[in-house]
Design a protein that fits this description.
single chain; mainly beta; 7-stranded mixed beta sheet; about 50% strand
Length: about 130
């Protein structure tokens, strides 16, 4: 069974930073790309960022561009989401996801991913 485990969430003041990590556990598998999504209370789960394993191609939602950075560590099969200049509207449960389908253009939608983590809470408040 494939599992993705997120870590690094917590409480931070507006303007602060957090670093989220995502690593697989359980059965090994090869994915094409990894993504981060988030879901705030009462809202739909939305795309945040994605990265392709082969060449580190990245793509960001407009709402986080310039503040968040996604990166991958091929050796550790870990994906990092560095979040800077956090705003109250960034507060949400953040989910890591893995895609084995090599269609880059589909990976801003939830349906492009086959595996999901359980999520980690990010709270931005003074």
């Amino acid at each position: 069974q494939v599992q993705l485990v997120e870590s690094g969430g917590g409480l931070v003041q507006p303007g602060g930073s957090l670093r989220l990590s995502c690593a697989p556990s359980g059965r090994t598998f090869t994915s094409y790309a990894m993504g981060w999504f988030r879901q705030a209370p009462g809202k739909e789960r939305e795309f945040v960022a994605r990265v392709r394993w082969s060449d580190s191609l990245r793509y960001y939602a407009d709402s986080v561009k310039g503040r968040f950075t996604i990166s991958r560590d091929n050796a550790k099969k870990t994906v990092i989401l560095q979040m800077n200049s956090l705003k109250p509207e960034d507060a949400a449960v953040y989910y890591c996801a893995a895609s084995i389908t090599p269609i880059w253009s589909l990976l801003s939608s939830r349906g492009g991913y086959e595996y999901w983590g359980q999520g980690t809470q990010v709270t931005v408040s003074s």
